[in-house]
């Protein structure tokens, strides 16, 4: 009974911290995470990524892209022609070369939050209104709390960085870093 009470108390504290927006990276991960973020910044400034985001931001969306919602995106299979078309863009092909045992996912969003490219199909089509996109669009780094990611099935810490052009954020790039590899 005492174990149950302690477990419930712990769960209540975690829930309260999540609801209040407080999320801290465990101290044992902080040093490795900071070092990894420095490496990721080089990817976020790659000319191929900047160019692709600029093209995404300046082009008119196709009818399919304009009609895409997170709900519709979630219902599409990996073999859907729309998903395959995005997965085969030069940016998506490039991002696939950047995943490794540490980086389980990468996706790039334009200023509108819609996908400019991804290494693998993401859970959401747009991240507009979500901190992982909005914080980088304000020119800052987003670091999420460790959690199980729906699209990759592994425990990750998501890091969002701004894609910059002329010192101004034009999009975001989000990396899923495997917690088991950071330890």
**What is the mean predicted local confidence, pLDDT?**
87
CATH architecture: 2-Layer Sandwich
CATH class: Alpha Beta
CATH fold assignment:
Beta-Lactamase
Class of secondary structure makeup: alpha+beta
Distance between the termini: 33 Å
Percentage of helical residues? 40-55%
CATH superfamily: PAS domain
Could you characterize what this model shows?
- About 30% of the residues are buried.
- The chain has helices at about 1-20, 25-45, 45-60, 65, 70-75, 80-85, 90-95, 130-135, 180; strands at about 105-110, 115-120, 140-145, 145-150, 155-165, 170-180.
- It is of the alpha+beta class and about 180 residues long.
- The protein has one domain: Beta-Lactamase, CATH 3.30.450.20.
- The model is unreliable at about 5-20 (pLDDT under 50).
- It is built from nine helices and six strands; from the N terminus they run αααααααββαββββα.
- Strands 1, 2, 3, 4, 5 and 6 form a six-stranded antiparallel beta sheet that branches.
- The chain is globular, with a radius of gyration of 17 Å.
């Amino acid at each position: 009974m005492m174990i149950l009470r302690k477990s419930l108390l712990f769960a209540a504290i975690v829930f309260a911290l999540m609801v209040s927006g407080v999320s801290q990276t465990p101290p044992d991960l902080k040093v490795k995470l900071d070092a990894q973020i420095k490496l990721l910044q080089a990817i976020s400034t790659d000319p191929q990524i900047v160019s692709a985001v600029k093209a995404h931001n300046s082009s008119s969306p196709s009818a399919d892209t304009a009609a895409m919602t997170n709900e519709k995106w979630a219902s599409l299979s990996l073999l859907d022609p729309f998903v395959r078309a995005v997965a085969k863009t030069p940016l998506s092909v490039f991002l696939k070369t950047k995943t490794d045992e540490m980086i389980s996912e990468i996706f790039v969003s334009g200023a509108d939050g819609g996908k400019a490219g991804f290494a693998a199909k993401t859970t959401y089509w747009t991240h507009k209104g979500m901190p992982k996109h909005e914080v980088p669009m304000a020119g800052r780094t987003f670091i999420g709390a460790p959690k199980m990611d729906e699209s990759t099935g592994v425990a990750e810490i998501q890091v969002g960085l701004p894609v910059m052009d002329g010192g101004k954020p034009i999009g975001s790039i989000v990396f899923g870093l495997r917690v088991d590899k950071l330890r």
